[in-house]
Amino acid sequence: MNNKPLILVVEDDAAVRNLMAVTLDTQGYRYHLARNGAEALIEATTHQPAVMLLDLGLPDMEGVDIIRRVRGWTGMPIIVVSARGEDADKVDALDAGADDYLTKPFSVDELLARLRVALRRVNAEPSPSQEDAVYENGALRIDYAAGCAFIADREIHLTPIEYKLLCLLARNTGKVLTHNYILKEIWGSYTASDVGSLRVFMATLRKKLQTGGGEQPYIQTHVGIGYRMLKPEGRGEEAP
Amino acid sequence: MQDHERILVCVSASPTNADVIRRAAALSKTLDAELIALYVEDTEVRNEAQARAVHEHLGLAERHGAMLTTIYGDDPATAIAQYARVSGITKIVLGKSPERRHPFAPKETLMSRLNELAPNVEIVIVPNQLSAEAGSFRLSRLFRRERFSPLDLIRTALILAACTGVGFLFSAVGLAITNVVLIYILGVMAVALVTTGYLYTLLSSLLSVLVFNFFFTEPFYSLRSSPDYFATFAVMFAVALLSSSQTSRIKAQSVQTANKAYQTEVLLSTSQLLQKAEDKQAILEVVQRQLSRLLEHSVLCYDVTDGVIADAPTMCTIEQDGGFDGIGPELEVVRWVGLNAVHAGSTTRTFPQAKCLYMAVRGERTVWAVIGIRADCAPTIDEYRKNLMISILDLCALAVEKDHMTREKQRMEESARQESLRANLLRSISHDLRTPLTSISGNAAILMENTGQLSPENCRQLYASIYDDAIWLNGLVENLLTITRTENGVMKLNLQTELAADAVEEALRHMDRDAAKRHISTDLPEEMLMARMDAGLIVQVLVNLLNNAVKHAPEGSRITVGVRRRGGMAYLWVEDDGPGVPAGDEEKVFDMFYTGVKRGPDSRRGIGLGLALCKSIVQAHDGAIGVENIQPHGAKFWFTLPIAEVEGYEQ
Predict the structure, then answer these.
(1) Which residue from A161, A200, A222 is facing B528, i.e. has the nearest CB?
(2) A105 and B470: CB-CB below 8 Å?
(3) Residue B1 falls within a domain, yes or no?
(4) Domain containing residue B243
(5) How confident is the model over B317-348, as pLDDT tens digits?
(6) Residue among B5, B11, B7 nearest B95 (CA)
(7) Which residues of A touch B506 (CB under 8 A)?
(8) What's the gap between Cα A60 and its chain centre?
(9) Which of B467, B473, B499 would best serve as a mutation to test chain A binding (most A beta carbons within 10 A)?
(10) One domain, residues B187 and B297
(11) The domain over range A129-229 is classified in CATH as 3.40.50.1480
(12) Which residue from B42, B39, B80 is spatially nearest to B58, judged by alpha carbons?
């Protein structure tokens, strides 16, 4: 029975907490509930959950602070749940180290889909040595040693920057990377005009990956927030 | 009449005037009245001592908090009465002036005439304590008035010599002796024209009589003459003196007229420029420019907003003055002026060591700005220009005050408009929130109480209804949140460069569930079309337009959303093949609370918020929005956004 991953739900609103609990229960996940930031930190340290679902509007602490503290010692995926539609809050949380976000009201399907993405990431992670060789995601293959990328064994021609972007996204598969993060990683620093360039690079990169024939895009665009490399479900290895 | 008193005190060169001003100031303090110091400049020739006295008195009045005003007019009584009427003066303070003691005008004239001309104004007479000294003052003044000038003396001598020459010519030709007399009178008038002061006129009148006597009356070359000529001498002297003094007066008047014309011109052009100025900043700039042109000095201007004085002045530099930043200790003086609304700095008693003369632009109660006039590297400003300057500052204060009031009025109207909009909104919302909430709570209650008794199909319908209503409510809340981001009609945008196609794809993900029953297709361009946008808001516009299309087009209809480049703008549209927009309503659909044709009690919900919001969002992006009906049927909603060109993305 302990095979199922443990999910930590941090949510102050009883109704939403209940909704999440029921949802997780129906899918057979184990879960722990926390009603505020202090409980969340205790639960996170003592039970070491696989994934944390974190509400940003907690009564006692700023969600961003919790993320920073948790990030001090673990890389476990954090999915933030925010009632506010404001993109700035999400971007702050993502920059602080969150992996993904959900906006209230969210559908149960959406919640479960995000959870699966996060769990796949956990399962793929503990092998840094693997990264050095080859990255595989469905038909997409990146040969780090050779510095080439392939779709269905056909090499795709990328500019140096596009290749760097692809590698950055691949290394963080499943994680939403904010514009600022990407700009800092690729260009070192950035100005306002670079944001436009990033859009164009990402669009061309997406197009080049698309020509390979995949019906679902490898790279998701999160307008106003950033991008994410996705391992589409049913493609690539199934979670054990 | 007004509630508060306005006291007018007349400023003159009279030595008793200082006392009058002090008493007027005391009176204004007691009555908590506004004090206005009025100086009537007339054509009477003024000497330096008088000018200095007036200057001192004006300064004194100012130190007592009076507002200085100068008007022009030959008849002080009419001028004062007119001013009093126009500016709502309630009391006039006068001194029993020793001046204007004139055989034909009794000394009460001013007072009695004022009584006559301005019957509504109370006239307060301050008893004269200095009348004993007044006589001696007048006498000494007569002597002090004249200045010795060798040049004028030479001019006088030359003119008289010329007259004598002509006189000899006339007598040689044999013309009558009376012609020579006329020549001398002409000469004396010429002297009056070319010299200043009465001394030379008097001297030349006297000399011409003597010279005439010496050269042209028998016995010649002697001052002795027959008694017959005494009458001639007397008349000649009188005529010369009178006509020459008339000439002096005309001369003085012409200078005055020229000054007055110049002043009128300056004030008129200033007032014209002020009328064109659109805001306070522009007004201050105009005044700064006018003053620096008038005074040929650098003029600094410190803006005062809500009692806070700007840290740095706006400069208007005249080149020869060199650089001057107006910061440092000067700022203290500026603060003081701003606080006390009184002139200070160079040439005044307060902070005389300052490099500039600082004057407040003040209205009824507030100081709007502080003007600094660079006075250290140029001769101090004369009385005439100073008065003109004060007039310009008064004009400026009036203009700023008017501008301020207009703005205040606009602001209040705007806030009233916003308030009524908000009230309307709240009414519609509270009405429209209840309907879905009733449905949600009702459906949930049925499900709770009748578990097991409902058929699975019935249950599914109830669940779906709850879900749909909740989603609808969420859309409404989304729009309301955006409205709260709008303040005073201005939307705060978080502009970024985004791919227009990305926004379209994002919007499609956020559409209503009902959308599944329509065929939705996209028409996206090949090129990377980037636009400056607040992504969240533009996605919301698209979602609103898409949901609107879903709402109005029946099931099974086609909806297309597309992006193109058109006329330097990104052109986005949402098209359906539903019934289209009622003819004539193309503009109205974007009005708040427009809900289309009434369709009876079963009509679908909507408070007409979505499209109105779309319009304000697009307009905040400097774009346009519109709708047109398409053939054979259907509506095409479109909007434009400024394109953002990305340069050099390929290295």
Answers:
(1) A200
(2) yes
(3) no
(4) 150-254
(5) 555 555 555 556 677 788 888 777 777 777 77
(6) B11
(7) 221-223
(8) 26
(9) B499
(10) no
(11) no
(12) B39
Contact B476, B432 (CB under 8 A): yes
Residues 6+ apart with CB under 8 A from B92: B7, B8, B9, B10, B80, B84, B114, B118, B121, B122, B123, B124
Tell me whether residue B217 is in a domain.
yes
Lowest average pLDDT, out of A223-227, B17-21, B106-110, B367-371, goes to B106-110
How far does the CA of residue A203 sit from the closest CA of chain B (Å)?
8
Cβ separation of B528 and A199 shorter than 8 Å?
yes
The CATH classification number of A6-124 equals 3.40.50.2300
State how far the Cα of B252 lies from the Cα of B258, in Å rounded to an integer.
10
| Residue B591 shares a structural domain with residue B511 | yes
Same domain, yes or no, for B207 and B189?
yes
Angle, CA B31 vertex, CA B30 and CA B35 arms, to 5°: 95
Q: Which sign, positive or negative, has the C-alpha torsion B593, B472, B474, A222? A: negative
Query: Distance (Å, rounded) from C-alpha B74 to C-alpha B426?
Result: 67
Interface of A with B in 138-197 (CB under 8 A): 159-161, 193, 195-197
Nearest to B499 among A85, A86, A203 (CB): A203
Q: Point out the residue among A87, A159, A196 whose CB comes nearest to the CB of B650.
A: A159
Q: Mutate which of B469, B496, B512, B647 to test chain A, going by most A C-beta atoms within 10 A?
A: B496
At residue B303, the pLDDT reads: 83
- B375 min Cα distance to partner chain A (Å): 48
**B213 and B100 in one domain?**
no
Separation CA A42–CA B542 (nearest Å): 43
Task: Give the Cα separation of B113 and B119 in Å (integer).
Answer: 10
Instruction: Give B601's contacts (C-beta < 8 A, 6+ positions apart).
Output: none
Q: How many domains does chain B have?
A: 5
What is the C-alpha separation between B93 and B12, in angstroms, rounded? 12
pLDDT tens-digit profile of B427-442? 767 767 887 888 898 8
Shortest CA distance from B540: residue in chain A: A85
- Let me know whether B346 and B434 are in one domain: no
Q: Where in chain A is CATH 3.40.50.2300?
A: 6-124
Same-domain status, B508 and B597: yes
